[in-house]
């Protein structure tokens, strides 16, 4: 096993307040100066838990092996994905197949997996993620487990310990997951016993290298990073808010650029819509989204660029986006992703300029 070292940043914290930075309105996002490489891409492992349909452990193991063979380094999972099943399968795959090849493990917090018999009065169970209930998309999860929400400092430590056991490897980065609603956000921000300060303590002790967030709502991420001094949060993962369809993360990206917070961009295919899927943000796509998708398809055809390749290239245009995440569930999907990444270097600059003229991109997008 080869683990990549990263310096541990320690930070003190003051009374809760907003740490705003001046003159941000006059700044613009800086354009990325390098081509996208496989080292810049995070392998998303949620589907290894059987999303919508079972895939089984052998395919999950083969997928991890294919990703390592292709040269991917970063692997992202969460207890939420199959009630810990994704963590188990990803960890086993890395232990069996990594050998001396480098890798980094990222997982998330906010949910504690408990056996049904261990659930206590007062535990807040996330019923929508229990197999067999409406809305649960992970069909291979253990029916005897219950996801209990906990965004406190203690919850961060418990979640870290449980994930470490399931994965069986060192955890490079830990992300507070889905703290988008008011109650979860309040627990995350609380002082002195909230989730963020619990994560900072894990980093101070050298148990993790990076404190991160993994959320869908850019506004919620902004609230967290503005509530603490610079250096508290190392990086953030924002999902579904910076892609060809949706650029709602523009303000967040600029704030992170100013603060030196690295961004990991997930949901780059707009819930799969840009790679032939039929849903958008876990539901039927609105007519305006379908029209925009078709407009992108036509524009890409004019420039002889595959739509997924354009999606990959756009996802990493701003320099502040350090990494792009893509979910895979088979060796074939790993191979396809690798080919798309290589093809991004041939995307013509004129495609982005034409997209801007046609109103497909916001003015916040940095153009070559």
Overall description:
This protein has 368 residues and is α/β, with parallel strands linked by helices. It has helices spanning 56-70, 85-97, 153-167, 182-189, 195-204, 218-226, 250-259, 287-302, 307-315, 331-343, 349-357, and strands at 2-3, 41-44, 74-76, 102-109, 111-115, 145-149, 173-177, 210-215, 235-239, 262-266, 321-327. The strands form two sheets. Strands 2-3-4-7-8-9-10-11 form an eight-stranded parallel barrel, surrounded by five helices. Strands 5-6 form a two-stranded antiparallel sheet. It is globular, with a radius of gyration of 20 Å.
Q: Helicity, in percent?
A: 25-40%
List segments where confidence is low: pLDDT < 50 over at least 5 consecutive residues: 1-16
How are helices and strands ordered from N to C? EEHEHEEEHEHHEHEHEHHEHH
Mean of residue pLDDT?
Answer: 93
Tell me the radius of gyration: 20 Å
* Sheet having the most strands: 8 strands, parallel, barrel
Work out the number of β strands.
11
- Total helical segments: 11
Structural class by secondary-structure content: alpha/beta
Write down the overall geometry: globular
Question: How are the strands of the biggest sheet laid out side by side?
Answer: 2-3-4-7-8-9-10-11
End-to-end separation: 39 Å
Report the portion of residues in β strands.
5-15%
């Amino acid at each position: 096993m080869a683990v990549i070292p990263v310096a541990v940043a320690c930070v003190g914290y003051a009374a809760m307040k907003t740490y705003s930075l001046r003159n941000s309105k006059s700044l613009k996002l800086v354009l990325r100066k390098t081509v996208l490489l496989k080292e810049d891409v995070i392998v998303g492992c949620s589907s290894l838990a059987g999303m919508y349909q079972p895939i089984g452990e052998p395919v999950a193991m083969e997928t991890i092996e294919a990703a390592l063979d292709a040269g991917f380094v970063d692997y992202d999972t969460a207890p939420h994905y199959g009630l810990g099943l994704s963590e188990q399968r990803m960890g086993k795959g890395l232990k069996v197949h990594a050998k001396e090849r480098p890798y980094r493990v990222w997982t998330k917090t906010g949910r504690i997996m408990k056996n049904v018999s261990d659930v206590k009065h007062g535990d807040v169970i996330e019923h929508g993620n229990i197999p067999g209930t409406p809305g649960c998309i992970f069909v291979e999860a253990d029916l005897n487990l219950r996801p209990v929400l906990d965004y406190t400092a203690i919850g961060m430590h418990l979640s870290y310990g449980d994930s470490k056991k399931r994965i069986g490897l060192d955890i490079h980065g830990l992300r507070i997951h889905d703290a988008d609603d008011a109650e979860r956000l309040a627990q995350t921000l609380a002082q002195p016993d909230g989730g963020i300060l619990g994560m900072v303590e894990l980093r101070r002790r050298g148990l993790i290298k990076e404190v991160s967030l993994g959320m869908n709502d850019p506004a919620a991420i902004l609230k967290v990073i503005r509530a603490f001094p610079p250096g508290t949060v190392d990086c953030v993962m924002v999902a579904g808010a910076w892609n060809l369809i949706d650029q709602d993360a523009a303000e967040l990206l600029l704030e992170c650029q100013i603060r030196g917070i690295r961004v990991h961009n997930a949901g780059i295919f707009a819930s799969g819509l840009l790679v032939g899927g039929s849903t958008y943000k876990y539901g039927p796509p609105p007519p305006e989204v379908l029209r925009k998708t078709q407009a992108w398809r036509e524009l890409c055809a004019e420039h002889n660029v595959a739509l997924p390749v354009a999606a990959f290239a756009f996802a990493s245009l701003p320099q502040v986006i350090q990494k792009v995440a893509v979910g895979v569930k088979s060796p074939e999907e790993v191979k396809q992703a690798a080919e798309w990444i290589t093809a991004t270097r041939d995307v013509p600059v004129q495609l982005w300029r034409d997209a801007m003229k046609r109103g497909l991109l916001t003015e916040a997008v940095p153009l070559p």
